[in-house]
Amino acid sequence: MAAYLFGFLALAAIVVSLLGISRARRVRTSQAEKVHSRPIYHGLNAAIWTGVPAFVFLILWLTGQNAIVDMIVMGSYPGADALSGAQRSLVLSEIRQVANGNNFREPSPQILAAVAHLQSLEMLARWAMVALVAALVTVGAFFGLKVIESRYRARHSVERSITIFMLFSSLVAILTTLGIVGSLVYEAAQFFARVPLTEFLFGLRWEPQIALRADQVAGQGAFGAIPVFFGTFVISALAMLVAVPTGILSAIYLTEYSGARFRAVVKPLLEILAGIPTVVYGFFAVLTVAPAVRSLGLTIGVEAAPNSALAAGAVMGVMLIPFISSLSDDAFAAVPRAMRDGSYALGSTKGETIRKVLLPAALPGIVGGVLLALSRAIGETMIVVMAAGLIAKMTLNPFDAVTTVTVQIVTLLIGDSEFDNPKTLAAFALGLMLFIITLGLNLIALRTVRKYREKY
Amino acid sequence: MNVLTEVAVEKKLNPMTKESNIKMRGKDVTVHYGEKQALFAVNLDIPERQVTALIGPSGCGKSTFLRCLNRMNDTIDSARVGGNITLDGEDIYDPKIDVVELRARVGMVFQKPNPFPKSIYENVAYGPRIHGLTRNKAELDEVVESSLKKAALWSEVKDRLQESGTGLSGGQQQRLCIARAIAVSPEVILMDEPCSALDPIATAKVEELIDELRANYTIIIVTHSMQQAARVSQRTAMFHLGYLVEEGATDKMFTNPDDKRTQDYITGRFG
Amino acid sequence: MNVLTEVAVEKKLNPMTKESNIKMRGKDVTVHYGEKQALFAVNLDIPERQVTALIGPSGCGKSTFLRCLNRMNDTIDSARVGGNITLDGEDIYDPKIDVVELRARVGMVFQKPNPFPKSIYENVAYGPRIHGLTRNKAELDEVVESSLKKAALWSEVKDRLQESGTGLSGGQQQRLCIARAIAVSPEVILMDEPCSALDPIATAKVEELIDELRANYTIIIVTHSMQQAARVSQRTAMFHLGYLVEEGATDKMFTNPDDKRTQDYITGRFG
Amino acid sequence: MTAVTFPAVVINWGSDEMAARRKRRYAADRRLQIYGMIAIAFALGFLAILIGTLTFTGYRAFTQSVVTFELDLSKAEIDRSDVMGADWRGIVRGALREKVPELPRSSERAYFAMFTSSAQFLVRDQVIRNPALLDGVARFSVPLSDPLDQLAKGQVDRDTPESQRRVTDRQIEFYEQLSAAGAISKPFNWGLFFNSDSRFPELAGLAGAISGSFWALLVCFLISFPIGIAAAIYLEEFAPKNRFTDLIEININNLAAVPSVVFGLLGLAVFLGWFGLPRSVPLVGGMVLALMTLPTIIIVTRASLTSVPSSIREAALGIGASKTEAIFHHILPLSMPTIMTGTIIGLAQALGETAPLLLIGMNAFITSPPAGVLEASTALPTQIYIWADSPERGFVARTSAAILVLLGFLILMNAIAIFLRQRFERRW
Amino acid sequence: RDQIKIVGSSTVFPYSQAVAEEFANKTGKPAPVVESLGTGGGFKAFCGGVGPDHADITGASRAIKESEVKLCADNGVTDITEALIGYDGLSIAVSRANTTDWDLTEEQIFKALAAELPDGKGGFVANPNKKWSDIDASLPATAIVAFGPPPTSGTRDAFVELVMHDGCKDLPGMADLKKADEDKWTEVCSRMRQDGPFVEAGENDNLIVQRLESDPNSVGIFGYSFLYENSDKLKGIKVNDVEPNFDTIADGSYPVARPLFFYVKNAHRDVIPGMKEFLEEYVSEAALGPDGYLAERGLTPLADDKRAEVQKAVLEGKKFGS
Ligand SMILES: Nc1ncnc2c1ncn2[C@@H]1O[C@H](COP(=O)(O)OP(=O)(O)OP(=O)(O)O)[C@@H](O)[C@H]1O
Ligand SMILES: Nc1ncnc2c1ncn2[C@@H]1O[C@H](COP(=O)(O)OP(=O)(O)OP(=O)(O)O)[C@@H](O)[C@H]1O
Ligand SMILES: [Mg+2]
Ligand SMILES: [Mg+2]
Ligand SMILES: O=P([O-])([O-])[O-]
Q1: Exposure pattern of B26-36 as b/e (b: 16+ CB <10 Å)?
Q2: C120 lies in which domain range?
Q3: Which chain B residues touch D11 with a CB distance below 8 Å?
Q4: According to a count of CB atoms within 10 Å of the terminal CB, is the N or C end of chain E lower?
């Protein structure tokens, strides 16, 4: 039904816009005076009037209809007031099943009555919906067509509608942030009601093995976030250690040394690295890189943990290569040719030009890319969930196991969880901290980029 | 066209300056950009310690010729250079030639000022540093100071050497680029429309500078302005559609050119 | 045009062209870019169906003034325009004015040719199409053809109307932009250095075109070339450092200018 | 100024000292070039190893051993009005029993365990789809069960003690017998693409996951593409430039760094909690992924809008186009290639994203492909996640194969976009 | 909603999957949606209320707890049926490449993996054991590396309860401690070491299997079905001299086994289509029987009488707790 209505709306909008166009054409031929907007704008304007209000109405109606129908049905169901919420929903569910023809047992007469009521109500609602949509379409079409006359600024009107849509779109990003911050702050506040902020911020022990249920056996639980953030730092640093030199050197080679054809082939290949699912990287880190790191550790005489930070960091670094190489590549390409020429004309070699002139000039772009990659490293989840450890340890040894914020968030949230337990709530506190930290990083990134941008 | 070639050949046989004074010489220089030919068999001698002006309508190949002289065309993938260019009698397109050395000897100032996004000091010090021209900081300081002085910029920037070179005004940037070029003590300086971005006052300063530099350096300047060519150069070469139309002493070119096109161009019949 | 002997100040108060012949008039026009003032109280009348040339050294505000005349400065965030500009006596900065309509009446050809990366046909047809100037395809074809003919481009492109406009040579692109501008039948055409990118032959063609267009349109042209100003314009206005130095009939400006700076500029003492 | 005299400094460029110096400089230049090559070789080598390992473990899943047998259904006394209710188990077992004459009763269990336990359903469904099969002799193929499939693919070491392998010596004998009779073949495993998930590796396929991913990505694309572009246009072209827009810019960049699992939380709270949408459906998955993809598209679109030369904008405005017309007629089409690149990167990330889908239940076990966006389904990455956690051996190869399929999906998507991008690309 | 919705334990997940598939194949009805949320998560979803928005069945790798019964009751889920479907062994395994014949006692396991050990003087010291030979000279002199489930999983709970507590209680002084300070006893006996030898390896058991292969000296803790499927690569470690296999798990002689359950929301039986047939399938001989397809997938089946009891309870909808 609804699908037909949406189809009808689209059709109506098209028809009305065609009517509008022809009407506008007639107005134009019949009047000597200059017409403000082209017929197409009159048509579009009429179509917007016809379709948009009815569309919005239909969406609202569809979201609200069931709840209202249910309310009315239950309102007349005998003894409904005495039922608990659970029973109500059970009865409702049975009514709906019966209405759909699914009988399991002989329905009681009350149910049958309610089913009849429901069906009549739904019929009514359906016709009401159709009637109202039709009315809205008619009124909209009438108005949209009526305003067509030579001086009517249909273009302005259409452009205003587009602007409103664009404004709405940019609000989505803002609403997303508000949603994230809102939910994080709400839950994190509950966490901090149980665990002191100072312990979270300055505590050196992270052991959220607290009992989930009253009758579960577990340790005490400690919520010092520093080791977790320290682990994030170590793994991100290792990832950057792999990604930054590889990315920048690749970009240098691609922009300055390689031929155009080599570049055209290699650049998309490198970009595949960014598109490989992170689960796959996770498997690769655990099954291929981690054992290699262990044997590497053995040959150099270092005891390597099976979940070494190095394995997770290195693989994550590979994932980040294209971020840095592509953005650095763009940054190098954006350095005006004049800079290169200036340097070559003084008698410098390619290498000198790259190191002494291009690199400083492209630095803002490169820094931007590096910071984006760093943000990704900090926020990356699946690789570390699979490849990094769960035990929070303050160590700088890359062969040792560390845990990261995202690992903790995922482990605390997925699996057995109870939403009023500090252990689960800790995930939100970690998420909030992480949000604040990356916000700071991006602030620095924007400042840095602004500071150096367009200086040459 | 026949007449033109004859004139050109004659001129080459009887150069106005003595043979010993020829710093650079282009023989049958041709340049292709991909399919398109941008220069056609250009023969031009550049006398030492004089200012040679290259004039001609837009797109006639002046910049292209200039860039041939220090092989900056190497950096353009599609460019192919033919013919023969010598510096002090040595073929600069010889594979054995060291481009880095060549470019150190033949400096260039570009049409648009292009200081590096570094401090003023670093801009000037860059060349001496990569070529290892100085032994220590004091010597380097001296080179920077004297170069900026020669470029008539010292007084304006001596208190702000550590500020970025890109923060200077257009005219100052242009002079900074000149200072940067002469800091390497090149033998030849190529200047591509050095005043196109400049206001009248800055233009006057740069012209004055060129006049002074002439004492020690060989200078080649490209300009769109007849007036400027007349003011600063001793010799002038007129290009048109990739051909060298005429060249000679500036006085003569501006008063009594041999070629009709030169005449027309100078008197504003076209261009 | 007959009475040329009056002094400049007087001329502004008593324009030698009849009031009815003034197409556009700028009164005390000032422009600021952020802090920097680029135009200082410029008063200039543009007579109908004549070519007015704006000359002056680089950066003196010619383009800025031109862009005031069809409010293209609106697109620059930092630009603020003061004073009063009228088109047929109507204030074009009046909030009630529809900018889109204004720009349709005052067309512009930019300093650098900027064809859309679409076919040649689409480039020219775009304006008539968005303004709904034609009723059907045949009419549109006709407008495109006649515009290209006026811009002296038709013979060169009539067989390749569907090819991209950006694939044309610089001069052809420039003429395409001119065709595009006149396809909307504007009343005034602003041309910012339309020949800067052109070779001599193309320049001659554009100048010829301007001469023809003058019969129907009011034309304002910015040029760096004195020769060009002298050849194509009836009136000339000389700008310097944001001030209108002098304006008057072209003949007089080039033979007997009132202002010392005009004299110097025209004879190549600076610029 | 004229008072300054310039002593000519003469430098001997040809001296040995200078030449040696230049040699050192050239060496440094070459070193940098080599480092660059090493970096690229490292990155590409990693990619090659990754794909190589996947192919090595996954290629086996692209074939499936099947047993082929003949069945004369006209003799089977099937009630044509109730084909579904026939004794398919008996019919199929009877046919299979014929393959090994004199099958001892004691070995029956071992023998029938060699074939997929759903054999009778496969045959039944095939007959229901094509009732003509009821009229005579027809050939049917059913997959071998997973342990036998492993055996057929040489994955079982026959020398290991019987207790340490999933196939018994008896089954190996039967297998040899069947295979000698030519009843066993290893055709291409179309089931990998056309079956839905199953508990049994030999039947498990990706149809559900592929269509789930398809629907989710479609939703993601339909939401994030227009909204992302509209938001970018608004922010870049219409919004005033001030502190507040700066804040929005930082904020959007920051959204790109928010861990994906947090988006899952948001989806859980908002779409499932507030809006009451059903769990595990591609619609919700797509909306969550769209929230993740939006920042990427916005950032890239803004960058590409700014990179359109202002001369184009001026040209349009100069003719009398309105701002909106200039944007939609000229600027947007010109930035389209870059926008599409960004969309591709964003969608590629969305395609491979697991964590948020886990939170909204798109990792459920569902045995039929979704017919639309409101039916429960999995997605490719979550399917990989589920298979990777399944004990059966057959899933090891299938996991790798699924990853390869996902990469194929990715490359297909990229290829389409690159094709479209080339159509949009215009020479300047 | 026209299909059944099943949530709950990841351990029961594969069995529910198999039944769901068989059910769909047999009846041609839409297949149930099975989601693995963990035992606790499953109860949370299951006990959330009645009605089509809530799950019909939840799997559990332990019996429902008091607190969960209460949660259910609070939300109106008062009528549920419990079904014990079989047992799951928690295997401790090593790669076959490891040549040692492993046989550990629970006490040795505790000494290897606990965070703290009693120092014999009434206090506790951080676990000093780095190599197996540090615990008992007869054990190999290789480093202790054990991959195990994270604290968020039911498998971990079971391991702690079944192995660690048993291994802990017989240590000197622990019995006294239990009397004196039960909380302290629980903490000491439950905490796994955090200094490296015990590696919390996430929820993915296959990952552990593959890690054992690449590192023959490490041991792994995971569900028996994974050992069963990978018996050519892995071997089970005997615990208290008992090897894990179907027989030892079923007869209870293998100490690390736990019961598996599912719980049915009876209120939904009449509301959700196919519930009845599905439950019939789940408790049928073909599924739960000794030769049933669930046993084929690694479930240790119930004894015959027990099974009949369960079948009866499920089909009749016997109310839990009554
Ligand atoms: N990189 C290039 N690729 C292709 N063609 C080029 C390139 N550079 C210049 N050209 C062409 O070569 C010809 C000569 O160009 P050149 O830059 O030498 O002109 P010019 O005399 O310096 O002009 P202007 O006075 O405008 O600077 C022109 O037709 C130009 O279009
Ligand atoms: N967008 C801008 N922002 C800031 N300053 C500007 C901007 N555009 C022009 N200016 C400044 O305004 C002054 C006048 O510029 P305008 O472009 O009008 O010069 P012009 O006379 O057209 O010069 P040219 O002959 O070089 O085109 C110059 O000093 C210039 O630097
Ligand atoms: Mg040039
Ligand atoms: Mg200008
Ligand atoms: O999913 P669990 O069985 O580990 O709770």
Answers
A1: beebbbeeeee
A2: 3-266
A3: 104, 133, 185
A4: C
CATH number at residue D365: 1.10.3720.10
CB-defined contacts B:C, below 8 A: 50
Asked if the structure places residue D7 within a domain, the reply is no
For the stretch A295-344, pLDDT in tens is 888 888 888 777 889 999 999 999 989 888 877 887 787 777 778 888 88
For the stretch E149-174, pLDDT in tens is 877 677 787 888 888 888 888 888 78
CA-nearest residue, atom 2 of ligand 1: B33
Is residue B213 one of the residues assigned to a domain? yes
Task: Judge whether C271 lies within some domain.
Answer: no
Q: Which domain holds residue D337?
A: 207-424
What lies within 8 Å, CB to CB, of B266 at 6+ separation is B226, B253, B254, B257
Domain match, D46 and D170 both: no
Bridge pairing between strands C188-192 and C218-222: parallel
Quote the ipTM score.
0.80
- Separation of alpha carbons A303 and A429, rounded Å: 34
Query: Ligand 1 pocket, B61 CB below 6 A?
Result: yes
Neighbours of ion ligand 4 (CB under 5 A): C 63
Whether D381 and D232 share a structural domain: yes
Residues D130 and D250 in one domain: no
Q: Which of D8, D10, D13 sits opposite B101 (nearest CB)?
A: D13
Residue C257's φ and ψ, nearest 5 degrees, are -70, 150
Ligand 5: nearest atom to the Cα of E149: 4
Residues D175 and D312 placed together within one structural domain of the fold: no
- Does D11 fall in a domain? no
Assess whether the C-beta atom of B59 lies below 6 angstroms from ligand 1.
Answer: yes
Please give the pLDDT value at position A25. Answer: 82
Give the model confidence (pLDDT) of C74-117 as tens digits.
888 788 999 999 998 889 998 888 888 889 889 998 877 788 88
How distant is the alpha carbon of residue E195 from its chain centre? 25
Query: How many residue pairs bridge chain A and chain C with CB atoms within 8 Å of each other?
Result: 8
Say how many Å lie between the CA of residue D311 and the centre of ligand 2: 15
Task: Give yes or no for D165 touching E (CB within 8 A).
Answer: yes
Of C75, C117, C126, the CB nearest to D319: C126
* Interface contact A213-E40, CB threshold 8 A: yes
Cα D116 from Cα D122, distance rounded (Å): 9
The answer for A 369-408 residues in CB contact with E (under 8 A) is 385-386, 389-391, 393, 400-401
Q: Taking Cα atoms as reference points, which of C76, C82, C77, C80 lies closest to residue C26?
A: C82
Please name the residue whose Cα sits nearest to atom 22 of ligand 1: B63
D29 and D71 both lie in a single domain: no
D49 lies in the same domain as D132: no
- D237 lies in a domain? yes
Ligand number nearest to the C-alpha of C55: 2
Spatial contact of B175 and B112, defined as CB atoms under 8 Å apart? no
State which H helix or E strand residue B32 sits in: strand B22-33
Please report all neighbours of D, defined by 3+ CB atom pairs within 8 A: A, B, C, E
Q: Which residues of C touch A33 (CB under 8 A)?
A: none
Instruction: Map out the domains of chain A with their CATH numbers.
Output: 2-152 (no CATH), 222-452 (1.10.3720.10)
**Residues D351-376, mean pLDDT to the nearest whole number:** 85
Number of domains in chain C: 1
Asked if B164's CB is within 8 angstroms of A342's CB, the reply is no
* In a domain? residue B271: no
pLDDT band at A147 (very low <50, low <70, confident <90, very high): confident
Tell me: do D116 and D251 sit in the same domain. Answer: no
Residue D301: inside a domain: yes
Which residues sit with their C-beta closer than 6 Å to ligand 5? E 9-11, 38-39, 61, 153-155
B65: phi then psi, degrees, rounded to nearest 5: -65, -45
Say if C184 falls within a structural domain. yes
Q: What angle do CA A106, A112, A117 make, to 5 degrees?
A: 160
Q: Indicate which CATH number applies to the domain containing B75.
A: 3.40.50.300
Q: Assign A222 to helix, strand or coil.
A: strand
